[in-house]
Design goal:
By secondary structure, the chain is mainly beta. The protein has two helices and 25 strands. The longest helix has 26 residues. The radius of gyration is 31 Å and the shape is elongated. The C terminus is likely disordered.
Length: about 375
């Protein structure tokens, strides 16, 4: 009896273990639906492969930003399903995951109401990044000739390949003293020391795509009539101040616009947006533009606010911008890459006919200036 009882106890324990295992596996049927995982197409053009092989059929073509449901994953490939039901494989280098996509959505919401500093047009196909920098994650792709709104500028160190870095040569002879040269009046007033930098802009695309784009991939929208008047300087922005009636001009209805434009010396990584200011006014006597004001050596920041004010009983156009105080160091924020000055001075000018005057106020604020809507 003792042997029979021992055997019975062993079989009973085995039965209980099996029953417990089946119970655990069965509980999964009542735990609810499995959480769906999604990825988003970050390539300009992509397609789904039928299988992971060198030769395979194309299942479906994909568009930039399209959402795909993940079915399986092997190494660096996802097996996904499109909204239309097509199933196939895609390289993980052509997609971003849900967490990165959510960051793009949050960034768009954060800057949805930011004022537009200036507008531009894409010079070439460009990726829209989550942060300034070539290594930052990207999602959207903006085609050539896309109109964009520029919201904020930042500068980051330029990536230079190791083999492209210059190697200093040993000095075999003492360098000859350089001849004294006259200072270039168009030179930048201040260039921070350090590695080569490149500028990035936070932009907003026509479909609300918000992210960072390399500045050299786009051109600032500048009025055609003043496009060739900057000389050796690079246009940063231009704003219309007012119009002058000249029936003999080629402008619509004979209304010739006056402009304020800002430029810099083609340097990137500057801790300010522009270092020169120009006011171009239309002269009806000669039917051409003339330079009414040119100010050099400033450390100014966008945007320029165009408005109007009453001076000596007459309404005149005005423009206002911020300038770094001369007694305060300007630097690049190491975290965001944005230009930062500890103290700014607000500067306002008014246009009276073809003459430009500075508006002097005790605290530097344009008290008599009314912003145009």
């Amino acid at each position: 009896m003792s042997c029979f009882s021992a055997a019975l106890r062993r079989w009973s324990c085995l039965f209980l273990l099996l029953a417990f295992g089946f119970a655990l596996s069965g509980c999964g049927n009542f735990s609810g639906p499995i959480h769906k995982q999604y990825v988003y197409v970050s390539a300009r053009k992509a397609f789904l492969r039928e299988r992971l092989a060198a030769v395979t059929n194309r299942v479906a073509d994909l568009t930039n930003g399209e959402r795909l449901q993940v079915v399986d994953q092997q190494r660096r490939f996802y097996k996904v399903k499109t909204e239309k039901g097509a199933v196939g494989w895609i390289d993980d280098l052509q997609v971003i995951d849900q967490s990165d996509y959510d960051k793009f959505v949050a960034q768009a919401k954060e800057h949805a109401h930011d004022p537009v500093v200036v507008t531009g047009i894409m010079r070439d196909l460009s990726n829209v990044h989550l942060a300034p920098g070539r290594k930052a994650e990207h999602l959207y792709v903006l085609p050539e000739n896309t109109q964009v709104e520029l919201l904020r500028r930042a500068s980051v160190p330029k990536l230079v390949p190791a083999q492209a870095r210059p190697v200093p040569l040993p000095d075999s002879k003492k360098a000859a003293p350089k001849k004294k040269e006259k200072p270039d009046p168009n030179a930048a007033p201040y260039i921070p020391p350090g590695p080569p930098m490149e500028d990035w802009w936070l932009v907003r695309g026509p479909g609300g795509q918000t992210g960072w784009v390399l500045s050299r991939m786009m051109d600032i929208n500048i009025p055609r009539e003043i496009a060739g008047l900057a000389g050796t300087q690079k246009y940063i922005a231009a704003y219309k101040l007012s119009t002058v009636n000249d029936p003999e001009s080629k402008f619509p209805n004979g209304e010739a616009p006056n402009y304020v434009a800002v430029t810099n010396a083609w340097n990137q990584g500057l801790p300010y947006d522009f270092d020169q200011l120009h006011v171009f006014t239309w002269v009806t006597k000669h039917h051409r533009y003339e330079l009414s004001l040119r100010q050099r050596g400033i450390e100014g920041y966008l945007p320029i606010t165009v408005g109007s004010g009453v001076f000596n009983g007459k309404t005149e156009p005005t423009f206002t911008f911020r300038e770094a105080a001369k007694d305060n160091a300007v630097q690049i924020d190491p975290v965001t890459g944005a230009a930062v000055a500890g103290h700014y001075v607000t500067v306002t000018y008014r246009l009276e006919g073809n003459l430009v005057y500075k508006v002097d106020t005790p605290d530097g604020a344009p008290k008599e200036v009314a912003k145009k809507k």
